[in-house]
């Protein structure tokens, strides 16, 4: 609704000022800042957050790959590290792509930001492309499952992507490693890739780097493979109107024209830059087909190719490809198809190079099919308009709230799909970045950043909720000329009893001088017959100063009603001023301007009302202009008031523009003028309110409710406006409840207007809508009486709906639990307080208590200001002992058998834990009532802080307590949750409190392990899974050298940490222990085995089944680590004057390491050399008696056959 929106909002410039890139002074980074401060300065977080929020993707927890679910590291590229993981919720394999944050040593802003922001933008590009609805549905594009945030290298917050698992790897891997593919299979793969390119190009996306490594082979259905295009970091989005495009790609796959210049320019006579970029994708695809025919071999290694490219003889390149086609493809039909593809794709002249549609038609010999093989309706993906700095501060508070405001923690089906809020640490990073930007010299950046920061303080997004700070930032934004801040700043101050008066004239003087000259020039440039319509499309900046003044004055009223009529009068006067001595206007313009005499003349002369190009009639324009007399004149001459414009707006919608005194008569006139006027005409096109803080969709009754226009609401109800049959999300009743318009609710719920609660049973109770509108705007419209508005609204609704109603008894919420779990802002505290006063807080659904809902609503925010609702519940007597119940849902966040203290510890909120323990101190000893049986102190090691651990210890928590299932002490439990980078302050605290218990980490009746025993095993197993687990061990021994006293401490069975490392073939672990002076000569009691003896025997067995990962890769790693562990142990034993004759070949042969045996022989190892009188083959053969592992027996046989054959 381009035209209508511009007239009924405050036009251009209202919502804020255009941002500029920070100056060098603004952007400087103090070299003394710590790493955490530096990351907060980077603007890419906000931009990336905007992208992921708008795409509606699932947000994964970092635990996806930190809670022991990572299977293996698949590889590492320029921008990503790639892991294979298991999604425990859905029991499926997924790929996690970690963005690399490798930072330069100099840490200057330019050197730090350039690679990081580039990578962030590549992530943005990938997300936007893969989440684009038509591509999300395409089976030829790699599936994007979600995203998440993690602490990456050097504790920097970094995003990761979760994508579908390609079980067959890249296309090159698939062709090289699988049995030789038949031609039909290759043809299918060729078509799959063409379908993917077709989908991308029809969405106006250039892939930018087509090659085999960027095509993955997945199992689409059991037994059916499909090639999917991946890696969109180099892609170009929405370049249809670009006259110039930069295309890079991989040099070997460049088309001839790209080898001259990577810059593409459009040629109107021939093709656009975008068409040329598509053609580059196609040429690279042609080279990829060549490599498919070569079973994955690289085309540029073929004889003659390199020379032809060097000479720029690309016809020869094509001939070489055709030659390989004839030599590798069997079957006349297939040869013809591939021959045609190569002949027409590898064309030097782009005019003759096929596009993706031509390719698809020829692969399957299809004809007259516009979207071959796909039923998806494609739509262009629009370019992402990020600012040069990478920061995308929103123009409108509506967008700010969409970005920052808390989403539902759980939906009524127990789904986590709606969780959109970024993790608390990232919220802090964003808020801190905004704090820095409000210190910049540019008033434009300061204004927009201050507006964002004000909302952050109101919501508690990354900061303590702080009304004084919120008001301070809103003043900064207003005084910097951000109009939506100007419109509300005085009333916000009044709402919280802080007097403030905005000097708006001073802001006008500094800001509007330039704007006024711009508009004057625009007026002079408009042709005379179009001059009157300027109010609809072109005016704006010059009007804004008076219009915003009207809003500010209206805000001073006791009860605020949107001043639509007064605002639009400004635009109309401006148009009239510019109309002097102009020819006669048409009836649309006369109706809009209220020029009734001139309008009557035209109507009397026979001019009929009609629809303009936007579908607007003159009667529509008369309503828009707010002129009752013009409405009367048009209706008396037969104007049809039932006609809607192209967006679905009717004249009835625009009755909000009339003075309230005229609305009732206008409704009566329109409804009596014609029989088929649809009083309930619904449009989903939003109306943006002039203050900039709200938009509305719906029928005329919705517009009236949102505008708080009591006269219009009453008039519409008198003529049959529907309030009963709407669904919950579209109900005027729920809209009024969300805005706390209790006077409107009294009118809507009046029996005389036909209301009965029995008629709206299909709707949710409007008590569940109390927090669904913008909390800032809701506070503003009620001013000083916002708290009274809450209580009156609840009282009105409670007369008709049960205040303790359960929504979906299994998972569902009561009004109180919904408010407490959402916990969006300071305003919600008042809502919760009144619901507590009026309702029963112990009314609970099956899974969580009301108190637990409130604690879960903290969402990892450790700040006391976020916990006010929980403290209110505790003060109201809510039980902390009630345990959460079992659930039918598989979501890992459902924890049966947890009381409120467990949940509060899980959220890391010290103030709530302290409050609970003050009331019920014995809960500090109560473990979770589930299969795990973890104590509160166990839980605190995972999600708490040193302060929280201190609190529990002060309250009597036992540091030696053991978990029921794992038999781990608090110290062992903490280690079990760590991968590579622990919180050293927490670890130091746990070591300190564990000293009296001799640092025991694991204890059962027959076994006791110290911290170092357990850590050695865990580090070894992590290494086996492909994780650098030894980092944790190395860090501990470095930070806490007193732990070295445990090096030779024995378990109950007499094993040292080195013995355990050897048992788990922990090469890196053994090396670190040996470097720390562990004794390699110590023997186990009973069998007198040294570490070397242990690893030599373990290397002959299979790895534990509990180790996650591909069995083949785990077994290969097991052998390699066992061999390296034997070597390092042998080395240190010789340092201790214990000499062995065993050679490397003896070691490799003894464990059946066939590959290593061959390599050692090739490097000159002597297979006849003897140790203890035996050659490697004799040593192996002599050890094969008795029971041996079957897999080892097969390996040993291969080794012996090889050695015997030498």
Could you please describe the fold and organization of this structure?
The protein is of the alpha+beta class and 1206 residues long. Among the domains are: 38-102 and 114-164, 2-Layer Sandwich (Phosphorylase Kinase, domain 1), CATH 3.30.200.20; 180-364, Transferase(Phosphotransferase), domain 1 (Orthogonal Bundle), CATH 1.10.510.10; 397-502, no CATH class; 561-722, Ankyrin repeat-containing domain (Serine Threonine Protein Phosphatase 5, Tetratricopeptide repeat); 1006-1140, Serine Threonine Protein Phosphatase 5, Tetratricopeptide repeat, CATH 1.25.40.20; 1144-1205, no CATH class. 47% of the residues lie in helices and 7% in strands. The protein has 54 helices and 16 strands. It has a 6-stranded mixed beta sheet with strand order 1-5-6-4-3-2. A two-stranded antiparallel sheet has the order 7-10. Helix 24 runs parallel beside helix 26, helix 37 (850-856) packs antiparallel against helix 38 (868-875) and helix 43 (970-976) packs parallel to helix 45 (1011-1024). The longest helix has 25 residues, at 1111-1135. The radius of gyration is 36 Å and the shape is globular. Residues 1-44, 103-113, 366-371, 384-395, 406-420 and 512-542 have low confidence and may be disordered.
Quick structural gist:
The protein is an alpha+beta fold. Keywords: ANK repeat, Kinase, Repeat, Signal, Transferase.
Mean pLDDT: 80
Q: State the total count of DSSP E strands.
A: 16
How many alpha or pi helices?
54
The first-to-last residue Cα distance is 84 Å
Strand order of the largest sheet: 1-5-6-4-3-2
Rg value: 36 Å
Q: What would you give as the CATH superfamily of one domain?
A: Transferase(Phosphotransferase) domain 1
Largest sheet: 6 strands, mixed
CATH topology annotation of one domain: Transferase(Phosphotransferase), domain 1
Structural class: alpha+beta
Oligomer: single chain
CATH class category label of one domain = Mainly Alpha
Residue stretches low in confidence (pLDDT < 50, at least 5 long) are: 1-44, 103-113, 366-371, 384-395, 406-420, 512-542
Query: What CATH architecture label of one domain applies?
Result: Orthogonal Bundle
Shape from CA axes?
A: globular
Keywords: ANK repeat, Kinase, Repeat, Signal, Transferase
GO molecular function: ATP binding; protein kinase activity
Pfam families: Ank, Ank_2, Pkinase
InterPro entries: Ankyrin_rpt (IPR002110), Ankyrin_rpt-contain_sf (IPR036770), Kinase-like_dom_sf (IPR011009), Prot_kinase_dom (IPR000719), Ser/Thr_kinase_AS (IPR008271)
